[in-house]
Structures are given as C-alpha cells and as structure tokens.
Design a protein that fits this description.
With about 350 residues, the chain is an alpha/beta fold. It has 2 domains: about 140 residues, 3-Layer(aba) Sandwich (Rossmann fold), CATH 3.40.50.720; about 190 residues, Rossmann fold (3-Layer(aba) Sandwich). The protein is built from 13 helices and 12 strands. α8 links the parallel β7 and β8.
C-alpha cells in the first residue's frame, strides 16, 4: 500500500481524501502545536512515497535525497520557499503547492490588520477587559482614519506586490474610497491596465501612502525590501502591514522605527525568524502581532488540505500534479529514471 507522510496533522478534508483513495497515511508530528524534529522528518521520509509538508518544514536536498522512495512533494501552502525546488527537479521529484484558494481569506486578514492597527483595536479591547474603562473621553485611543474621515482627505493605500492577494486587497479598498498605489516590477502592465490601482515606484509609494501593505513573494531581491531607509521614507503616522513573508522586512529596523516613532504603527502576521520575533517587538504599544493566521479560516484551510491531498495522489499515480511548481521535471531523464527504479 502506498504511503503518504504528512509532517503535521492537516485538516480532515485532506486526510479524508487520502483515506478514500486507500492510501496509508502517517503523521510525523501528530501534535500540530509542536515542531517536527529533523531526525523524525528524515526517518519518516525514507519510508514514504509522497511527502506533504507545511511551510514550517525545511525540505532541503538532505531530506530529498533521504527520500529514496519519493514520487513527489505536495506542499500545503501557496509559497514553496521552504523547499529546495532546484534540488527536487535535479532528483526527478515533482513539487506542488496550493495556490489561489487562500487569496480572499488572506486579503480579509490584511484588512483586519489595517483596521486593528490604525484604530488601536487590541489595546482598546485589553483596556475594556482589564476593567479600566470608567468614562468616555475625547482623547481615548485616538486612531487614524482609513476612509476620508473628519478632515475629508482621501487616504492612500500602497500595495507592494500586485498578485492575486494584492489585487484582492485593492478591491476591498474601493469601499473605503482610498487612492491605491501599487508597485510590482513583474506586474507593471497589469497595474497600468487595472482600474484598481495606479503604478508607483517603491520610494514614491512609501512616501505618499498612509497604509503600506506587503504582498510580495520572498526572493533574494525582496529579502529586507523594507529596511531602515524605506521605513524612514514613510509618513510618521503611516502603518506597515505584512502578511507576505517575514524576511521581506528588516525586523530589527522595524522595532527601531516603531519605538522611535518614525512610523505610526505596524500589523504583522509573519516574522523574519518565525516563530521568534525581534527583540523588543512585543514590548511596543503600536504594533499588532498575529501567529501567521492569514489563511486560517475553516473553509480555506480545509480546501488547502484537499488540494495538497489531490496533488499527492497525482504524484502517486505518476500523473502531472494539478499544481506542480516545477512542471519541467516531467520531461527529464531524472524523473523517468526514478519511476523506472521505483516501478508502478
């Protein structure tokens, strides 16, 4: 019987899909709140035919080479920077992801962070539950308007990364009557053709925006895309939102920016060295911190798990996975050689 190893327990729809196909499933770390130990991952991958990891697991060349039976890796995430895709391709191993399904859910969370940060919602909630509220006050938890607000000025939303999620965030901005700027070197034509946003160079976007929200992928070019220089370009009451990847922001520089009030605030769902946070970040009163819950709705996570399982079954059958991120692997001698060795 074919074996699929899931690194940590995934939502039931994914497990049900595998069970209905008659696949044996092993779970490397059944407690979803604990990390997968490296030695357990290496032991487990040697005995499975397909691996379903999460973005929290590093699937590098060592893991891939240990998986002598591996017919594919089905990442349960949109991003796949946790996997050495180049090594997988060289070894003849298809890699897949779960794109598209979390777009709207993540855009919703970006807006939840925008509103929570600009209106100090977490601090106000803590104030209430602590029993400190005694009387309405004209200076109590003064926030920043996202819509036109009392002064009538149209606020500016700057979106860095204009892929599916960036565009979904822009659509939501129309309800707040915001001016939307967008920067994405790989989507200049799409931005120019869009009615949702206007192209802006990154520095211009940072200088003009009241809210800057990050939706770019993580590459060597985008690592620390926002550092001290970029933070100093922002308005002193502007807020920075990151639901993309933690290393896009220089977190130590962000702590300084928040502490010294170069900017007004920040809302983060991802971190540079996740789950660890930069020293001092949790001590600040102008930041909202979430535990990477961008796609955390029951419907979305369930569909992600099902997609990962469907990709895994395609890997097992030797069929092109619906969401392969290295489709070129299917035409390589490395892939054909692996299947000849493993047999059907």
């Amino acid at each position: 019987m074919a074996c699929v190893m899931v690194t940590r327990r995934i939502p039931e729809p994914g497990l049900d899909t595998l069970a209905e196909a008659g696949v044996r499933v092993t779970i490397c770390q059944p407690d979803g709140e604990l990390e997968v130990r490296r030695e357990d991952l290496l032991t487990g991958v040697r005995a499975c035919d397909v691996l379903i990891p999460l973005l929290t697991e590093r699937i590098d060349r060592v893991v891939l080479e240990a998986g002598e039976r591996l017919r594919g890796v089905a990442n349960m995430a949109v991003g796949f920077d946790n996997i050495d895709v180049a090594a997988a391709t060289e070894l003849g191993i298809p890699v897949s992801n779960t794109p598209g399904v979390l777009t709207e859910t993540t855009a919703d969370l970006a807006w939840a962070l925008i509103l929570s940060t600009t209106r100090q919602i977490p601090r106000a909630h803590a104030y209430m539950v602590s029993g400190r509220y005694r009387i309405w006050g004209p200076n109590l938890f003064l926030g920043v308007d996202v819509g036109r607000g009392g002064n009538g000025r149209r606020k500016v939303l700057g979106i860095v990364g204009f892929g599916r999620i960036g565009r979904a965030v822009a659509r939501r901005a129309t309800g707040f009557d915001m001016e939307v700027l967008a920067h994405d070197p790989f989507a200049r034509d799409e931005i120019d053709a869009s009615t949702l946003a206007v192209w802006a160079e990154l520095d211009d976007l940072l200088e003009r925006s009241d809210v800057v929200t990050l939706h770019t992928t993580l590459t060597e070019q985008t690592r620390h895309l926002v550092g001290e220089r970029e933070l100093r370009l922002m308005k002193p009451d502007a807020v920075l939102i990151n639901v993309a990847r933690g290393p896009v922001v220089d977190e130590a520089a962000l702590v300084r920016a928040l502490r010294e009030r170069w900017i007004g605030g920040a809302g983060l769902d991802v971190y540079e060295d996740e789950p660890r946070m930069a020293a001092g970040l949790t001590e600040l009163d102008n930041v909202v911190l979430l535990p990477h819950i961008g796609s955390a709705s029951r419907d979305t996570r369930g569909r992600m798990a099902s997609m990962a399982a469907e990709n895994a079954l395609a890997h097992l059958r030797g069929e092109p996975a619906p969401n392969a991120v290295n489709p070129e692997v299917y035409g390589t001698e490395a892939y054909r050689s692996r299947w000849r060795r493993l047999g059907s």
